[in-house]
Design brief:
Two copies of one chain form a homodimer.
Chain A lengths: L7 H9 L3 H10 L2 H8 L4 H9 L3 H10 L2 H8 L4 H8 L5 H9 L3 H10 L3 H11 L6 H4 L5 E4 L4 H12 L8 E4 L5 E5 L1 H6 L6 H4 L7 E2 L4 H11 L3 E5 L5 E6 H20 L11 H27 L2 H6 L7 H24 L8 H30 L3 H31 L10 H25 L1
Parallel strand pairs in A: 1-2, 4-5
Antiparallel strand pairs in A: 2-3, 5-6
Helix pairs in contact in A: 3-5, 7-9, 8-10, 15-16, 17-22, 19-21, 19-22, 20-21, 21-22
C-alpha cells in the first residue's frame, strides 16, 4: 500500500509526539502486513507504542506477521491474561496454536487457563498435540460442515450459525452420522438447489482429503497437483477434524524452495536476513569446513605430484580450471535431479535412462569445451603434452561429473537422505579432488609419450 | 491417488485390447492430474486412444495438465471445430486463452470462428490481448459481481444466474453503476444479511486489487504478502475486468523459485526433465563456456608465476583450495542477498549495513578456516613460507569473496539486472581468478621474507 500520509517518517514522528490518532489512521488505511513492515524500522519502545494503540483484532493480525523475535519481544511485555484475551481469542485456531507454540510450556498453560471461550481453547489444545510439520500441525478447526441427512434449507440456516465463527467460507463439508467426511457441497450447488432438496441429493462425493499425520511436504504436493484452495483433514478413521488453506501451504512451498536453494549455496539450518553475525556463522561455517577438508585432500593429490610439477611447472596453471569445470557440470546435473525430485517429475525407476541421458549431455558438453580449449592451447601453449593433457582431462572430468551429479542425488533420495545435500559444496569439492587426480594421471601418461 | 485396479500396466493392457470401459473407470476413479501422469508413459497412439475415450469436459482438464509438447501432439490430430467444441468451450477463459496462445495465429482464428458461445469467445479474445506475463495475462473472466444498489435478496437471485457459469464462487465483487470495483461482499455476509438489506449497506470497502498491467511477479508478491486466495483485476480507470486465483499464482511462485535455483546452478532458459539432449546442452553450455573463459584467465594468472612454481612446486598444491573457498563463501553471501531481494526483505537502502555485516561474517569465517589450516600446515608442511601464505591468502580470499558476493547482486539489482546472475558460475569463476592472484601475491612477499 502506498499512502502519502503514512510512511516511516510520519509514523516515527507521531510516536515521538504521542499522536495516537496517527496510529488509528494507520490501522484504517493499511493492512496488517503493511504495518508489520513498518515494525522492521521501529525500536522496541516505538513498536510497543504502536502495538498498544491498535485495536486488539488488528494488533493480533499484525503480531502474526512479525518476525518471531519481534513477536517474542512484544509478548514479553504482556500478561498471560492479555495474551489470552487480546491475541489468542482474536486469532484462528491454527495461528493461535502457532503463537502458543512459541511460548514456554508453563506460559502456554497459563495463557490457556485464562481463556474464557472454552470451545476455542479446547480446539487450540487439540491442535497443539500435532507435530508442527504434519497436516495436523498446519490445519485449523474453523470450518463449516453439514450432515448428509439435512435439507438444503436447514443447511443454510445451520451455516449461518457456523459461519459467524468462520472468516471465509470456502466450502461446506458433508459428513455422515459418525462425523466421517463423505463429500463436499459447493456454495454454488447450495445456492442453486431446488426447493426441498436434501444435502445427500446435491453433494459431491469426489473429495480430496489428507490424513492428520501426512507430512507438510505431502500436503503441499497435493495442493500443487490438484490446484487446491483448501483441503479437509481427516483422522485415522476418516472423521473430519480440520482444514488447511492454501496460504499456509504457500509458506510451506516457499520454505522448501528456500531450503533447496540454500543447500546448493552451502547454507544449513534456518536463516533469515536479520540473523546476528554469530547465527550467520553457524549456518555457513559447517559447509565451509567440509569444503576445506576437501581442499586439503585435493592438496594431497597435487602434492603427491610435486616432482612432475617441478619438471613441468606449466602444468600447475590448468589445475583450477579442470577442477572448476567438473564442479560446474556436477552442480548443473545434480540441480536438475534435485528439482525433478522436488517436483515429483523424476521417479526412482528413471535412474538408468536418466544416467544415460546425462552421460550423453556430458559427452557433448565435454566435446565442445575440450575442443575449444584444444584450439586455444594449440595456438598459445608451447607444450604439446600439456595441450593434450588439458583437453583429455577436461573431457574426462566433465563426463565423470555429469554421471556423478546425476547418480549421487538419486542414490541419496533412494536412501531417504535429502538429495539437496548433494548439490553445492559437496559436489564441487568432490570434483576438485577428482579433477586434480584425473589431470595428473592423464598428464603422467602424456608427458611420458611426448 | 492410489488405486489397485488402475495402474500403468492395466492401462496399457486395456488400450491394447481396445477396452474403453477401463478408460471410463479411469475417469471415474481418478482426477485429471492423475491421468496426465499416466500420459508420460504412453506413446502417441496410446495417448490418442485414452484421450478419445474420455468425456470432453474431463479430456479438456487432462489436456491442461499435460506438457506443452504432449498437448500439441494431441491437438494436432483434432480439427479446429473439435478444438473449439471439445476443448475451448470446456475450459475457463484463462485456461482457454493459454491453450489458444500455444497455437499459430491462423489456427487461433479458425478455432475462435468455430465457437458458438459468443460471450465465452469474446471473453477469450479479450484475454488474448494481454501480455502473458502480466496480471491481464493471468486473469480469468469468470466472476460473480453485484451492483451496490441491489438488495441482498436480488443479489442472491442474480448470483444464481451468474454462478451457473462460475465453477467456484470465492467472493462477490461489488461495483458501482460505472462498473468500477468498489468493494467485496463475502458469501458469509450475504448469508447473514438481515431481511431487506441493500448490498451497499453490507459490503466491505476494504479490497486489494491489481491493475491489468502489473507484472506476474508483483501479483505473486501481493498474494504472498496479504495471504490472498483470489484478487480482482481492474483496468486503468478502475473497472472490474477479471480475477486471478491462487493456483495460477502458485505456478508463478514455483517458476520464480526454480529460475533462481537454476541460475545458481548455471542453467539458463526454460528447462524440463523431458528436454532432449540438444535442449539440455543449450541450457547448460552457455555458463560452462563463461566458466571456461574464466578458467583460461585464471590459468594466465598462474602461468605468469611459472618461475615461482618451478622454484617452489609445493605452492601448486593449495591453488585449488584457495580458489574454491573463495567461491564457496561468495556463493553463500550472494545466495542470501538474492533470496532476500526475492522476498522483498532486503531493500536498496540496506546496502551499507549489509556489506558491513557480511564483512564481519567473512572475517570470522576467514579467521576460523585460516587458523585451522595454519595448525594443519604447521604439523604437516615443511615450508614455513607456504604455511603462512596459505593461511593469509585464505583469509584474504574469504573476506574478499564475502564483500563481493554481497555487493555484486545488490549492484545488479540496482541497475534492474536479475541479481540471480551473480550467483553460481559467475561468482565461483571470478573467485577462482582472484584466489589465484591473491595466493601468488601473498606468496611472492612471504617467500621473499623467509
Amino acid at each position: 500500500m502506498e499512502n502519502i500520509l503514512i510512511n516511516i517518517t510520519t509514523l516515527k514522528n507521531a510516536i515521538k509526539h504521542n499522536d495516537a490518532a496517527h496510529i488509528h489512521l494507520l490501522e484504517q488505511e493499511t493492512y496488517a502486513p503493511d504495518v508489520a513492515v513498518f515494525f522492521n524500522d521501529l525500536n522496541d519502545k516505538e513498536a510497543q507504542y504502536v502495538y498498544a494503540n491498535l485495536s486488539p483484532g488488528f494488533a493480533a493480525e499484525v503480531l502474526l506477521e512479525l518476525d518471531e523475535e519481534q513477536r517474542e519481544q512484544i509478548m514479553s511485555e504482556l500478561t498471560s491474561k492479555e495474551i489470552a484475551e487480546q491475541i489468542i481469542d482474536n486469532l484462528d485456531t491454527d495461528d493461535a496454536a502457532d503463537v502458543l507454540n512459541e511460548l514456554s510450556e508453563e506460559k502456554q498453560e497459563e495463557v490457556l487457563a485464562q481463556m474464557t471461550n472454552i470451545e476455542h481453547s479446547s480446539d487450540i489444545v487439540d491442535l497443539l498435540n500435532y507435530d508442527e510439520d504434519s497436516a495436523g500441525g498446519l490445519m485449523a478447526k474453523e470450518l463449516v460442515q453439514a450432515n448428509a441427512n439435512w435439507s438444503a434449507q436447514s443447511c443454510i440456516v445451520e451455516m449461518r450459525t457456523q459461519a459467524e465463527k468462520v472468516e471465509t467460507v470456502y466450502a461446506v463439508y458433508v459428513v455422515d452420522d459418525d462425523e466421517k467426511l463423505i463429500g463436499l457441497l459447493s456454495l454454488k450447488k447450495l445456492l442453486l438447489a431446488p426447493q426441498g432438496a436434501m444435502v445427500k441429493d446435491i453433494y459431491d462425493q469426489d473429495i480430496i482429503s489428507v490424513k492428520t499425520n501426512a507430512s507438510k511436504e505431502e500436503v503441499a504436493q497435493l495442493f500443487k497437483k490438484y490446484d487446491l484452495v483448501v483441503i479437509p483433514v481427516i483422522d485415522t478413521i476418516g472423521r473430519l477434524v480440520g482444514r488447511i488453506t492454501v496460504d499456509d501451504v504457500v509458506d510451506v512451498m516457499q520454505e522448501e524452495a528456500e531450503k533447496d536453494y540454500q543447500s546448493m549455496a552451502g547454507i544449513t539450518g534456518d536463516i533469515n536476513e536479520n540473523d546476528s553475525v554469530f547465527e550467520s556463522l553457524k549456518s555457513r561455517l559447517p559447509w565451509l569446513l567440509v569444503a576445506m577438508v576437501g581442499g586439503v585432500l585435493g592438496s594431497r593429490v597435487i602434492a603427491s605430484h610435486e616432482n612432475v610439477i617441478r619438471l613441468h611447472p606449466e602444468m600447475a596453471s590448468f589445475i583450477p580450471m579442470i577442477a572448476a569445470m567438473g564442479g560446474n557440470v556436477g552442480v548443473q546435473s545434480s540441480a536438475i535431479i534435485v528439482q525433478g525430485l522436488a517436483n515429483n517429475s523424476i521417479q526412482i525407476k528413471d535412474i538408468t535412462p536418466r544416467l544415460f541421458k546425462e552421460l550423453r549431455t556430458g559427452l557433448l558438453n565435454g566435446l565442445v569445451c575440450s575442443s575449444l580449449i584444444l584450439v586455444y592451447n594449440l595456438f598459445t601453449c608451447d607444450t604439446l603434452a600439456l595441450t593434450y593433457t588439458v583437453s583429455i582431462s577436461l573431457m574426462s572430468a566433465i563426463v565423470f561429473a555429469s554421471v556423478m551429479g546425476t547418480f549421487v542425488p538419486l542414490f541419496l533420495n533412494k536412501y531417504k537422505i535429502d538429495p539437496a545435500l548433494a548439490t553445492g559444496p559437496f559436489i564441487t569439492t568432490t570434483n576438485d579432488i577428482l579433477g586434480a587426480f584425473i589431470y595428473f594421471t592423464v598428464g603422467y601418461f602424456l608427458y611420458g609419450m611426448f
